[in-house]
Fold:
Amino acid sequence: MFISRIVIRNFRNFRHFDVLINQGVTCVVGENNTGKTNLLSAIRLPIDATLSSQYRVLLPSDFSLSLDYTTAKQILVSLELQDYAGKENEEAMVAGWEVDDNLALFVYEELHKRCHS
Structure:
C-alpha cells in the first residue's frame, strides 16, 4: 500500500497543494521553514488513529496565513491510498474507505468561522 495522492487546502503554509506520488521511495526535501513538517502533520490528521483529539482539533493559527477570515474557511487534507488489494492486513486497514477497486480515500476536514463584531 502507498499514498498515491495528497491534497491539502488552507493548512498552515499550504493554500493549495495537490501532488500525485508514484509507488516507491519518495523524499521530501526543502530549506528550513518551507513546510516539510507541516506536510507530515497534515498527513497524520486523516490516518493516524493514535493522534489525540487535542492535536486533531485545529487552532485558528493552523489556517493558511493567506486566508481572508471574513468568511468561513475550511482546511482539507485528502489522501488516496492504492495497491493494497490481496493483502489481508492492508485491506482491513482501509475497509470502509474504499472509493474504487484498490483505491481508498482518507479525508480530514475542519471548518473555521470567524465571529464578526
